TrEMBL record:
PROSITE patterns: GIY_YIG
UniProt-recorded name of the protein: AAA family ATPase
Ranges where the GIY-YIG domain occurs: 28-103
InterPro entries attached to this UniProt entry: GIY-YIG_endonuc (IPR000305), GIY-YIG_endonuc_sf (IPR035901), P-loop_NTPase (IPR027417), SLFN_3-like_DNA/RNA_helicase (IPR018647)
Length: 574
């Protein structure tokens, strides 16, 4: 029998008074509540529901709400209620049934006594709220959606929270002066860089629009930012989130449209920033390692536009000027989210530029490293293992990866079938590969792209939101489609572009079997040739990124027999 109850009442003064008289825990007990009108919803926690409801009734941003549900449980304490509040906010945002009115004042992911037991109760509370009509989808369906994965309501871990707080406190000071600043958040795949960027955007908007009549929790991480003077400081800021990759940019734009506070926030390309009518106050750049330098861009029109922008901003088409220079020219405060080991093309800004950026931000005490692995259940041990596996210093053994699954296949059809099984069980299981096959199907030629072991597969038909597309389970995603996204299980095909040289015994890039033309071309504008060493770095970076997409597990199929044998010999130590 469930120990919790969910009380319903009208969002009105007389209903609050009535509840106070008949429900003892309504006045002096930790509870979680939801206030809604069928479209908008606010979720909160409090130790005194009567007092909190009376405060909300005075709020201009909530006076249109109509109904309250209060979750009551004799076992609740403040930590459990904070956790349940955060849990419901994340799931409501990911479900999309309601538009959330909550601020990002600072819910972090903290452990507390008997948390696992409370989590079981939270699932039961979710089920009852879903039966009432608060949710449209199940928890696994919600958690597999972009709305959930890219939600601005994620609970931050401690190091993420500290980075956000330090950046925001610095902005409060910097916005009152003419200072121009550069900050950088650096982390491996899966450390939550994109989540921090989205969270920052939401927090910037919340500070501009928060209701002064709201009672901000004084113990929350960002509560000291929500004061009247800061509200005026942030109100008229021009802010934007730059996302160089088309697919990820489109996904984040959809998420922003669902969040009332973010509807006015701009998700931009570097070209949008450069061509804007006015300068920006704050620009956050996600996947900053995918910003480009001067050279032949993805389309000829962009190459021409690149020179025009540089001339307009700097007076001449200086080939040393890159998109980061554009952004710093147009923004008073620039915040970069980057991992230089994820650069995958010669046109990406070269690593030495970012080394100078990291040195500059470190000197200014504006560099924030993220180390905690948030994506892969194998943790940092798996990341280090995967990185070493695609190197000339392979690991001597397989580390303890807990429940994380890592398996090599000799038949691609068998791996594809395993991916189908995992997708049926968990969702979001996909095949991905290095760019080791021509994209013949692109021109509707009837030819397939990847043909191995009697199996014929095609590259991703869609280059936007491919992972969620109807045909994605029977296709193969490229690096340009999946970088920045999470999967539950990834089936990684390591193609003939990466092999072991039989003479030297070392990894080499096979230029003839690498079919990303922009990934191996020389930068003639800057007089830079893409050497074999450069190409090997790009290709190994690609596979290291692909090997870190799967949250629950990774399967691999290796074309080169020597490399397959090397990896198999490592796996025998497990």
């Amino acid at each position: 029998m469930t120990a919790f109850e969910i009380e319903q009442l009208a969002f009105a003064a007389d209903s609050v008074a009535d509840a106070s008289s008949r429900i003892p825990r309504f006045v002096n007990w930790p509870v979680v509540y939801l206030i809604e009108d069928g479209k908008d919803i606010y979720v909160g926690e409090t130790g005194n529901a009567e007092r909190r409801m009376r405060q909300h009734l005075k709020s201009d941003t909530k006076k249109h709400l109509r109904e309250v549900r209060v979750v009551l449980d004799d076992r609740f304490n403040a930590s459990a209620c904070l956790d349940l509040e955060s849990y419901l906010i994340r799931l409501l945002d990911g479900d999309g049934r309601f538009k959330l009115l909550n601020l990002n004042e600072g819910v972090t992911n903290q452990e507390y006594y008997q948390r696992s037991e409370y989590n079981e109760t939270f699932k039961e509370i979710f089920d009852e709220l879903r039966d009432i009509g608060y949710f449209q989808r199940s928890i696994p369906q919600i958690e597999n959606s972009d709305l959930f994965k890219l939600s601005p309501y994620k609970a931050l871990n401690t190091e993420q929270g500290i980075a956000v707080l330090d950046i925001m406190e610095g902005l409060v000071e910097d916005l009152r002066s003419d200072t121009r600043t550069l900050s950088a958040i650096q982390g491996d795949p899966g450390t939550g860089k994109t989540i921090v960027g989205i969270y920052l955007m939401k927090l910037l908007r919340d500070l501009a629009e928060f209701d002064p009549t709201d009672d901000i929790d004084g113990d929350s991480m960002f509560s000291d930012l929500f004061v009247e003077g800061n509200r005026e400081l942030f109100q008229d800021l021009r802010i934007g989130l730059v996302v160089p990759q088309k697919s990820l940019r489109k996904s984040i734009t959809k998420v922003f449209r669902k969040a009332p506070a973010l509807r006015g926030a701009q998700v931009l390309t570097p070209y949008d920033v450069a061509d804007a009518d006015e300068d920006f106050d704050v620009i956050v750049v996600d996947e900053a390692h995918r910003l480009t330098q001067r050279g032949s861009q993805s389309h000829g029109t962009l190459t021409k536009r690149y020179g025009e922008i540089t001339r307009r901003l700097f007076g001449e088409d200086d080939y040393s000027i890159n998109q980061l220079d554009w952004i710093r020219k147009r923004a008073r405060h620039t915040i970069l989210l980057l991992d230089t080991a994820q650069s995958v093309r010669p046109i990406d800004i070269e690593p030495e530029v970012f080394q100078r950026v990291l040195a500059e931000t470190r000197e200014q005490k504006r560099l924030y490293p993220l180390d905690t692995q948030m994506r892969v259940k194998g943790g940092k041990e798996y990341l280090e293992f995967a990185r070493a596996l695609i190197s000339d210093d392979p690991p001597a053994r397989v580390p303890d990866l807990g429940d994380y699954v890592f398996e090599i296949f000799d038949d691609l059809g068998d791996m594809h079938e395993r991916i189908r099984e995992r997708d049926a069980e968990y969702g979001l299981a996909r095949l991905v590969a290095g760019y080791a096959w021509k994209w013949r199907s692109k021109n509707k030629s009837g030819e397939h792209d990847i043909e191995l072991d009697g199996l014929a597969l095609d590259w991703n038909v869609s280059d936007v939101d491919w992972i969620a597309s109807k045909t994605s389970l029977e296709e193969v995603g490229s690096i340009h489609t999946v970088q920045g996204y999470d999967l539950n299980y990834a089936g990684v095909i390591i193609g003939g572009d990466l092999r072991i040289d039989p003479d030297s015994g070392k990894l080499v890039a096979d230029r003839d079997n690498y079919f990303d033309a922009k990934g191996k071309s020389n930068n003639s504008m800057r007089g830079r040739a893409t050497s074999e060493e450069d190409l090997l770095r790009y290709i190994t970076n690609i596979y290291r990124v692909l090997l870190t997409r799967g949250m629950r597990g990774t399967y691999i199929y290796v074309v080169d027999p020597e490399l397959r044998q090397r990896i198999r010999s490592v796996l025998r130590t497990a």
